[in-house]
Amino acid sequence: MTAPAQSPQTDAEAAVAEGSTGSAANGSRLASASPATSPPSGAGPGQASSRKQLGGSPAGDGGLATRSVARLGMLVGNQRLLVELTEAGEIIAMPPVIVPVPLTKDWFLGMTNVRGSLYTVVDLRRFAGEGVTDVGKETRLLSVAPSLGFNVTLVVSKMLGLRNTASMTPVGNVTPAHADASWLGDSFADADGHIWRELSLSRLVASPDFLMVGRQPQPIN
Length: 221
Prior knowledge:
The chain is of the alpha+beta class. The strands form two sheets. Strands 8-1-2-11-10-9 form a six-stranded mixed β-sheet. It has a five-stranded mixed β-sheet with strand order 3-6-7-5-4. It is 12% helix and 29% strand. The protein has helices spanning 12-16, 60-67, 124-127, 201-206, 208-211, and strands at 70-76, 79-84, 88-93, 108-114, 117-122, 140-144, 152-156, 158-164, 169-171, 184-189, 195-199. Strand 1 and strand 2 form a beta hairpin. The chain is built from five helices and eleven strands. The protein is globular. It has a single domain, classed as CATH 2.40.50.180.
């Protein structure tokens, strides 16, 4: 596999300041399964290659305090989610081509090529049992941080910028549609009454259901 070029993208604050982030041409990347062949049943995404993380490392002691409450906000379907900056990778526009991989789950959309490197694309909303994510002009892909060791990107309906949980009110969690949604955390209400829920990318990529991308072929009658 051709080694990807170094991303020119800056830190998380710069990435989301524009409202939804840059295009594929200016450096955000997808994540992927390592091989270009069909993954066997039970095979999860491959390990990520080294590349710059969206969140970056905050500078100074004040940065550590900010990191504990600052989250990357995003809309997946109708649900507002909050992601730790240290777990977020990079953001790019939806690629023009996503190649389906045979014998994989319906939420595993396939693979795409970004500057000579192959990446996988996952419909998080569909994986969560909430329906198919509609693709529009604000749809983006979010990769997980390289430190998590998985080349995975998630389809995001809209990026909502940086959010501060310190200014929100904790609320009770709504039971998710997915039977085992250990990757969802606490819920918060903002000043406008919108409900946000924490999404742990580290727990998501470690979930057995998420790693089981393969499916059995349909029997021929």
